[in-house]
Amino acid sequence: MRGKLDKIALRLLLISMLVGLSGCGTVKGWLEEESYELPPTELVEFTAEFTPVKLWSTDTGGGSDSDYSDIAVWLQNEMAVVVDYEGDVSAYNAATGGRLWQVSLDVPVITGAGGGEGLILIGTQEGEVLALDETNGDLLWKQQLTSEVLAPPKAANGVVVARTADGRMRGFSATDGTVLWNYQRKVPLLSLRGASAAMIAGDKVIAGYASGKLVALSIKDGQVVWEKSVAVSRGRSELERLVDIDADPVIKNGVVYAVAYNGQVAAFDLETGQKLWSRDMSSRSGLDVASSNNVYISDDMDYVWALQGRDALWRQTRLLRRKLTAPVVVGNHVLVGDFEGYVHWISRDDGRFVARTQISKSAIRSKPAVKNDIVYILANDGELTAFRIQ
Question: ∠ CA 249-365-192 to the nearest 5 degrees?
C-alpha cells in the first residue's frame, strides 16, 4: 500500500513539474512514456506489389532536435518549403528538388512553415510571426505575439492567421502585419504539447482547441460562425479529462473532419457546423480524407483505420506503437511514416501492405504532403524525399 501511495505521489509531482516548467500546462514527454512502455511492433514481411518511384531526395539541413516538434514541408505554387529548428528556411523546386533560395532567421522553431498571399510564414518559439517574400525569402514584416507559435501560420483573403500556445488566434494584414482581430479561448490546466493548425476555407477559419471544441471564425473579423464539440472532458483527474484536438482538421467537399485525443472523430457541415456523424476514436496524429469521403486515421495505438462515415471498412494493426504520422491519401493507397524513417504504402481497398521503403534512420513525425501527383516526406533529420504517385 505504501508503494502504491508513493507512486501516486510521484506522478502528482511529475504533473506539477510539467505544468510549472511549461508555463501553459502542456504535457510533453510523460504521456508518451506511459503510452509506449511496451516495445514497438517489429515490421512484418510481405510481398511488395510495386517499388515506389523516388523522384529526388535532398538534405535540407538541421531538421528538428525535438521529439515533439512537427516541422512539416509546406507546398506553395511550384515550391516545397522547409524550416529547421534554428530558423533556416529553404525553398526547393517541387519537381526537381533544386534549391531556389535559403535564408537564416536565427530563431527557434518547433513547427513547419506556412504561407499564402505571396508570403512564406514562420512562427517561432519566442512568439513571433515572420513574413517572407515567397520569391526570394526576404523578410517583409514581423509581428510579436503573446506566446510560442505551435502551428504553421496561414494566409488567404488578405489575412494572415496565427495561433499561439495560450489559446489565442489572431488575424493580421498580409500586407504589413497590422493586427486586424483577436480571438481567445481558455486553455485547460493540463493539455497536450501542440496545437492543430488553423485551416482556411473560403471566408472561414477552422481550428480545434484543447477543450475538445472545433470553432469556425470569420476570416474577415474573427467573429464566431459556429462552435461544436468533438470531445467532452470526463473523469476525475486532469489527465483523464484531456481532450485536445492536436491533429489538423481536414476540409473536403464542404465537410470538416476532425479527431480529438480521448474523444471522437466527427464530420461537420462547413457552412452550418451541423454534425453529420461521429465515432469514438482517440488520435493525436490525425487523419486524411479521400475524394470518396472515406476517412483514414492513425489512432493512439498506431492502428490505421479506414472509415466510411462512422462505419469501419478495415483496420491495420501491424504497426502497433511505431509512432505513426497521420495517413495521407496517395492514389489507391494511404501512406504513413514511422519512428524509424520507414514509409508504409497501404491499400485503400483492404488495408494490406503493398510497399515499404526507408527514407532515413531518423523518425518521420509530420504528415506527408501531396501535390501534382507527387508525395513529399520530411524526416526529422531534415531529409526531404519526393515520390511519384503510382
Answer: 60
270-306 pLDDT per residue, tens: 999 999 999 999 999 999 999 999 999 999 999 999 9
How far is 276 from 219, CA to CA, in rounded Å? Answer: 24
Instruction: Please report, for residues 14, 126, 148, 153, 183, the alpha-carbon distance to residue 23 in angstroms, rounded to integers and kept in the order given.
Output: 14, 13, 11, 22, 20
Residues 389 and 332 in one domain: yes
Can you tell me whether residue 295 is helix, strand or coil? strand
The verdict on residue 218 lying in a domain is no
239 class by beta-carbon count within 10 Å (0-12 exposed, 13-18 middle, 19+ buried): middle
The total domain count for the chain is: 2
Amino acid (one-letter) located at 61: G
In terms of residue numbers, what domain contains 23?
A: 1-37
DSSP, collapsed to helix, strand or coil, labels residue 15 as: helix
Confidence at 231, pLDDT banded by 50, 70, 90? confident
Same domain, 362 and 344: yes
Q: Would residue 51 count as lying in a domain? A: yes
Residue type, 69: S
Q: What's this model's pTM, rounded to 2 decimal places? A: 0.87
Neighbours of 133 (CB within 10 A): 14
Helix, strand, or coil here: 287? strand
Tell me if 29 is assigned to some domain: yes
What's the grid cell of residue 1? 500500500
CATH number at residue 310: 2.130.10.10
